Amino acid sequence: MTKYKIKKHTPVPAKKCVHFFKCMWETDCEAIARAELAEMSPLLLEAMGRTRGIELDRRRTKQSLIDELYEVM
Asked: Would you write out the chain's pLDDT as a tens digit for each of its 73 residues?
């Protein structure tokens, strides 16, 4: 008989990260990624969306473009 209890490991969902190395040292990767997207113009956001396979409507607010694009990344 073993005197140690084996605990079942519940997997922790991975946080969404769009960077490769920045998240190793930073704790809030999402804020960094959204800040980088906020620095872009709506034209660049639309072009980045097209490379990811979605079509962004530039008539919407910049924040909604950022939210849509971040969900795809």
From this structure: 567 676 666 665 555 666 655 565 666 677 778 888 888 899 998 988 888 888 988 889 999 988 888 888 7
Three-state SS string across 9-51, please?
CCCCCCCCCCCCCHHHHCCCHHHHHHHHHHCCCHHHHHHHHHH
Question: How far is it, in rounded angstroms, from Cα 28 to Cα 21?
Answer: 13
pTM, two decimal places = 0.62
Q: Other CB atoms closer than 10 Å to residue 65's CB: what's the count?
A: 22
Q: Identify which of 61, 59, 64, 66 has the alpha carbon closest to the alpha carbon of residue 44.
A: 66
Residue 33, in any domain of the structure: yes
Which range of residues forms the domain containing residue 37?
28-72
